[in-house]
Specification:
single chain; 3-stranded antiparallel β-sheet; 66% helix; binds zinc ion; zinc; metal-binding; GRF-type domain-containing protein; zinc ion binding; transmembrane helix
């Protein structure tokens, strides 16, 4: 039962070791990491990552890599959450920037459209003005004729 004692010592010494973030890929000694199932009474069937060298040499109270798989996965999730929130933040920033840009484009388009409409309206107004002028002239001429006629009659 040397494996169980190894796992137990690993568990009890976990706090003393440097905390490794996430899933360990390689031990500081250069050995690969093995996933081992704990057979200790304290943590039965709990999986842990262990330095392959330390595991094969059944080292006890060493400072080779030891990390519970669930804790490693929790780290990974935490890291992912941080990354996701950072991504969300940058995404929202991008969206706001894009929205601002779109707003500017929209405002420019609106301004252009308003200008075009104004020009069209001015053209229409000029047209109607000229026709109104003609009508006005016709009315004035008519009135003058009427006045002249009434004077002539009177
Ligand atoms: Zn090692």
């Amino acid at each position: 039962m040397s494996n169980s004692s190894g796992a137990t010592s690993g568990a009890s010494n976990g706090g003393q070791r440097r905390r490794i973030m996430g899933v360990p890929k390689i031990c500081w000694c250069g050995a690969s990491i093995s996933a081992i199932i704990s057979k200790s009474a304290a943590n039965p069937y709990r999986r842990y990552y262990r330095c392959a060298y330390a595991a094969s040499h059944k080292l006890i109270d060493d400072n080779h890599t030891f990390k519970w798989v669930d804790e490693a996965l929790l780290d990974e999730i935490e890291r992912l959450t941080v990354r996701t929130s950072a991504l969300e933040q940058s995404m929202s920033q991008i969206t706001t920037e894009t929205m601002d840009h779109q707003k500017i484009v929209f405002e420019r388009m609106q301004m252009k459209l308003e200008k075009e409409i104004l020009e069209r309206v001015e053209e229409e107004l000029l047209d109607s003005k000229s026709s109104m002028k003609k009508m006005l002239i016709a009315v004035i001429v008519g009135c003058m004729i009427m006045l002249g006629l009434s004077k002539m009659i009177g």
